[in-house]
């Protein structure tokens, strides 16, 4: 009787433990799911990690650079000389922002943030730069700043150069006729693709029939612009880092060369040659060993030779 009661108590204990474990596991799973959902909702990713084309885990190398596109120089003038003045790039941007179709973000001298904290209000934007909604001052936009990403995707084995964001820059003259630049706002290129993929611009001075969309103009890197900043730990522009004009020119050239060198370095045959050399060395070692085995008599070989001599 006593043994039966012990067995029943043991069974009940096992059942209770199993139920508690299952409930605990279920609760842990629910908490984990809620945590993941909350992180996905609340976590604001850095701009360089927002990409529909790449998996961030595959990015093994990234360089973020800022360029200044002077529209008075070829081929950048294409951004001002569209086939339809009503589809001027600056006018398109303001229209999209006004309608709430895209978000614009504050231009900041420190590290840019592309989230709700820096979202631009169109009314305050017009007030700040004295813009009349019925008279868009496209003629005052003489340059654009762009942010480029150079990155290597290890999984796809691709080296890419992409434009991530653009910023129109107003140029106005002061009382002393000094030109003052006003960077206005950043917009993400991916946000405006639908609106600029049909706006055609002339991109060839020697063949005026050639037309490309503004989207292709950026995607195919048809522009030319000076580097004015690279993402760095001190968050300084190149002019701040290199006040001397000669040093600045040298720094820009060094950065450009390093970007080209990195891409070329990915496809050099050095690695393949090293593998080939290793294989060749192994083959030579095997061949040498085989020759040595043939020419160096072993004990068995010596014995056979001796017997052979005796047989003669």
Task: Please specify the SSE layout and strand pairing.
Elements: H1 2-42, E1 59-70, H2 89-99, E2 105-106, H3 122-128, E3 141-153, E4 158-173, E5 179-183, E6 185-188, H4 193-196, E7 200-202, E8 211-213, H5 214-219, E9 226-230, H6 238-241, H7 245-266, H8 270-295, H9 299-311
Antiparallel strand pairs: 1-3, 1-9, 2-6, 3-4, 4-5, 4-6, 7-8
Description:
- This protein is an alpha+beta fold and 312 residues long.
- The protein has two domains: 33 residues; 214 residues, no CATH class.
- The chain has nine helices and nine strands.
- The strands form two sheets. Strands 1, 2, 3, 4, 5, 6 and 9 form a seven-stranded antiparallel sheet that branches. A two-stranded antiparallel sheet has the order 7-8.
- A hairpin with a 5-residue loop joins β4 and β5.
- The C terminus is likely disordered.
Low-pLDDT sequence parts = 24-29, 31-54, 270-276, 294-312
- How does the helix and strand content classify structurally? alpha+beta
Q: Which series of helices and strands comes N to C?
A: HEHEHEEEEHEEHEHHHH
Give the radius of gyration: 34 Å
Q: Number of helical segments?
A: 9
- How many strands, which pairing sense, and closed or not: the largest β-sheet? 7 strands, antiparallel
How much of the sequence lies in strands comes to 15-25%
How many distinct domains?
A: 2
């Amino acid at each position: 009787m006593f043994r039966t009661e012990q067995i029943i108590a043991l069974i009940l204990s096992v059942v209770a433990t199993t139920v508690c474990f299952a409930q605990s596991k279920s609760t842990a799973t629910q908490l984990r799911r809620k945590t993941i959902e909350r992180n996905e909702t609340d976590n604001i990713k850095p701009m360089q990690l927002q990409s529909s084309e790449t998996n961030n885990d595959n990015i093994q190398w990234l360089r973020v650079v800022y360029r200044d596109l002077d529209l008075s120089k070829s081929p950048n003038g294409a951004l001002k000389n569209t086939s339809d003045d009503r589809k001027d790039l600056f006018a398109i941007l303001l229209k999209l922002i006004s309608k709430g179709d895209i978000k614009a973000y504050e231009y900041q001298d420190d590290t840019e943030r592309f989230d709700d904290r820096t979202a631009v209000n169109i009314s305050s934007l017009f007030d700040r730069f004295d813009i009349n909604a019925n008279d868009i001052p496209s003629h005052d936009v003489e340059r654009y700043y762009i942010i480029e990403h150079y990155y290597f995707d290890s999984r796809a084995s691709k080296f890419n150069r992409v434009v991530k964001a653009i910023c129109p820059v107003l140029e106005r003259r002061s009382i002393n006729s000094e030109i003052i630049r006003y960077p206005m706002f950043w917009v993400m290129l991916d946000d405006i693709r639908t609106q600029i993929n049909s706006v055609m611009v002339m991109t060839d001075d020697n063949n005026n029939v050639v037309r490309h969309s503004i989207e292709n103009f950026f995607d195919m890197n048809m522009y030319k612009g000076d580097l004015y900043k690279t993402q760095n730990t001190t968050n300084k522009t190149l002019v701040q880092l290199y006040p001397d004009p000669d040093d600045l020119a040298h720094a820009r050239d060094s950065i450009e060369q390093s970007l080209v060198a990195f891409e070329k370095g990915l496809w050099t045959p050095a690695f393949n040659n090293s593998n080939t050399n290793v294989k060749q060395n192994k083959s030579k070692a095997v061949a040498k060993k085989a020759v040595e085995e043939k020419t160096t008599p072993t004990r068995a070989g010596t014995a056979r030779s001796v017997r052979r001599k005796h047989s003669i």
